[in-house]
Amino acid sequence: ENEVRPLTAQGRLSAVVIALLVPISVGILSLFPGYTEVLFQTTLGNMVLIVAGILELIGAAIVSRLVRIDF
Q1: Is there a smaller number of Cβ atoms within 10 Å at the N or the C end of the chain?
Q2: 46 pLDDT band (50/70/90 cuts)?
């Protein structure tokens, strides 16, 4: 197990980056209110946020599965 942990470090870091990508992007875009108000105030924008959240969860699950090593 001591040898496996360093080998999966890149995958775990990828999972963290994927998980933080959308919140950081929305945070940066919130500096420009005109860009984010479309996401939060329109039906299409809300659907885009929901789809992004679902895809984020799917991506995290896939990376988690790829990094998991059974002995």
Answers
A1: C
A2: very high
